[in-house]
Amino acid sequence: MDQIEKKIIETIDQNREQIVAFGRDIWHHAELGYREFRTAGKFNELLKNLGMEVDEGLAITGAKGYLKPKGTAGPTVAVIGELDALPIANHKDTNPETGAAHCCGHHAQLTATIGAALALSVPEVKEALDGNVVFMSTPSEEFVDIDYKNGLRKEGKARYGGGKCELIRIGAFEDIDVALGHHSDTDAEHDAIIMNCSSNVFVNKTVKFKGRKAHAAGFPEKGVDALNAAELALHGIALQRESFRDEDTVRCHGYYLQGGDAVNIIADDVVLEYCVRAKTMEAVKDANAKVDRSFKAGALATGCGLEIETLPGYFSTQPCPDVSALQAALDAVGEDRPLRVKEVPASEHITGSTDFGDVSAIMPLIQFYTTGLTGQLHNNNVEVVDEEIAYILPAKLFALTAYHLLKGDAAGARHLMEIYQPKLDRESYVEYMESMLGTIEMEMDPLPLLED
User: Fold this and answer.
1) By the 8 A CB rule, do 109 and 81 touch?
2) Which residues contact 52 (CB under 8 A, 6 or more apart)?
3) Structure pTM?
4) Which residues of the chain have pLDDT under 50?
5) Residue 165 to residue 312: CA distance in whole angstroms
């Protein structure tokens, strides 16, 4: 371990109380995507107090804090933390003002970003970096609350549901060369995970079937049942599952937002939120077309009207070709405290999705998980049980990885930039996202009413 590594670790340990207090505060004040104003304010204030120039209000609540002046020579590494939480109203620490809880662990990720900022701002550490570091907060990673996000889109405030997607669209990543990402985990057998595998692409859709009310017992023939249309459509999707290739890891899932008004009234307004996932862009386009076809078939068979509003979700994560900087960070931390480390290699694939995947499509992304939480993520039983692992360890790994990328004329970052092969540039990324964004409409076509 060299002197700069020691200084980074020492600084984070010395500021442990402040870092943990930040994490606890964010945990108890969870906010939903594109509405994380309090969380963003605390993040931005701390960076400003460290003397950084902060660009605020990016994609509504996002921000970028520059360790050194903009335009500093050398590569720029982004340390990224997410702002939002989940709409889980029955967690014991749910924010009563928002109905949100950090059962996703984003509070720990954002806390680690702050911890890294404290360490890398130390003058002797800062001077050892042959490049710049941007501490970035990103909104709305959780793809929930779709009606609200569609409203933002129609108002022209945000075009995409994912915060990093929106930040890519508006050019906020244009001055970034390498991204560092983190997520919390509940794996009790490990302290840290090198997460370097692919993930699923997805699109999200709001599906509205329009029927006609009637007395369900007395005059059902006078109604057009939107619930039947939806049920028929879902059956059509189920029957097509055998047409999905195993290697494409297709997932089709959703739920009813609205299913009718009463048991004795033919449903005239049924709404579903639906998600289509697959391993590649090509596979998700294929599955998406089959799902849309099924929804149209349900409407056509029953005579219902139909509106399908599709919102592009996230891109597949592209594994990083070189994670040696992260491994060096793990080794440095492990000198004082042996770590239980697991590696998920590029040969593996997860069927979940993250907008870190979108970042990895345009630049190299080094991503790791740390534990210290218990329960099941996205559930109301998530708890922080080890603040050292949940908050302090990822702060050290963020800071040390950035240092290893930027030390010695930023040789690590330059090598990574040279061997990385982007899937898309910003222009082609936006072109793809726009191609998946759209609305399908069908008019109601019921049979003529029978004579009484």
Assistant:
1) yes
2) 65, 66, 67, 117, 121, 135
3) 0.93
4) none
5) 9
What pLDDT, on the 0 to 100 scale, is given for residue 292?
97
What DSSP line would sit under 22-91, residue for residue? HHHHHHHT---TT--HHHHHHHHHHHHHTT-EEEEEETTTEEEEESS-TT-SS-EEEEEEE---B--TTS
pLDDT at 452: 59
Task: List the alpha helices (DSSP H) in 200-345.
Answer: 226-239, 281-302, 324-336
Residue-level pLDDT at 337:
84
| Size of the chain in residues | 452
For 269-297, how does the pLDDT look when each residue is reduced to its tens digit (9 = 90+)? 999 999 999 999 999 999 999 999 999 99
Q: What are the domain boundaries of the chain?
A: 3-199+316-421, 201-314+436-442
Helices (H) and strands (E) in the chain, counts: 14, 17
Q: Which residues contact 285 (CB under 8 A, 6 or more apart)?
A: 436
The answer to whether 83 touches 366, Cβ cutoff 8 Å, is no
Do the Cβ atoms of 202 and 313 come closer than 8 Å? yes
Q: For position 121, what pLDDT does the model report? A: 98
The secondary structure element, H or E, covering residue 109 is helix 106-120
Contact status, residue 123 vs residue 51, Cβ threshold 8 Å: no
- Whose CA is closest to 281, among 330, 240, 315, 331? 315
Query: CATH says 201-314+436-442 is which class?
Result: alpha beta
Could you report how far apart the first and last alpha carbons of the chain are, in Å?
Answer: 89
CA distances from 133 to 128, 210, 314, 413 (A): 12, 52, 25, 12
Q: What is the pLDDT of residue 336?
A: 85
39-54 per-residue burial string, b: 16 or more CB within 10 A, e: under 16: bbebbbebbeebebeb
Q: Which residue reads 């690590």 in tokens?
A: 412
CATH H superfamily, domain 3-199+316-421:
Zn peptidases (3.40.630.10)
13 Cβ contact partners less than 8 Å away, ≥ 6 residues apart: 392
